[in-house]
Automatic annotation (TrEMBL):
InterPro entries for the chain: Cytochrome_c-biogenesis_DsbD
Transmembrane segments: 6-36, 87-109, 121-140, 184-209, 229-247
Keywords noted in UniProt: Membrane, Transmembrane, Transmembrane helix
Superkingdom classification of source: Bacteria
Region forming the signal peptide: none
Stated name of the protein: Cytochrome C biogenesis protein transmembrane region
Amino acid sequence: MLTYLLYLIAALYLGVLTSISPCPLATNIAAISYIGSKVENGRLVIHAGLLYTLGRCVLYIALAGLLTLTSLSIPSVSLFLQKYMHLALGPIFLILGMFLAGLVSVAFGGGMMNEKLQKRVDSMGVWGALLLGILFAISFCPTSATWFFGLLALTLGADSGAITSVLTRIGIALPSASVPGGAFVLPLVYGIGTALPVLVVAFLLAYSAKSVGQTFKVLTKVEWWARMTTGWVFILLGVYFSLAYVFDISFTMT
């Protein structure tokens, strides 16, 4: 139970940080604002936020679940992950941390909200938010892509037992080596996490649109500190795991 709870918290944390990163947050607000401008009933704006959330969850479950289950269902890949995943965690944490801390940058494509998509959303009414949720979840920004690959590492590490294996080696014993249904549950929790601020914005648009700007400023500040802190923690963990398990350097105090 403790292991399960820790993985759920980690997935939710990654999802929330994804949602408040500048690029995803801007697209999320743009999507809900666009839907909100098309309806007069405040409740429909909230419904749009929920449908947008559902769209993101469906995409993340399908993508992360498919990649994880496919990898673990192939005997050779599953055996490889069980045997060597703990060796890959160090470099994975190090690379993700460098992206989050801004030490490495990658240019991604532009936005997906073109005229053709706007017409399709118009024709679907409030249900267009579901389509936007799916499409914007696919449209990865550098930071959101980093968080998503962090989710994949978390899911693969959970189902293969690699993460708990590493924790056991450094003296943190957990009751279980894997998370039952992690390939479905962790992406679901991650998807919900990516939508929490979106739902807040939907409520603000429905009842107090003037508060959206101030909320955006607060979330931007929180995101910077959370991203930098998490990034450097990932870097330190990546260095430690790499030295300990890739280069087999012992840090035991005598």
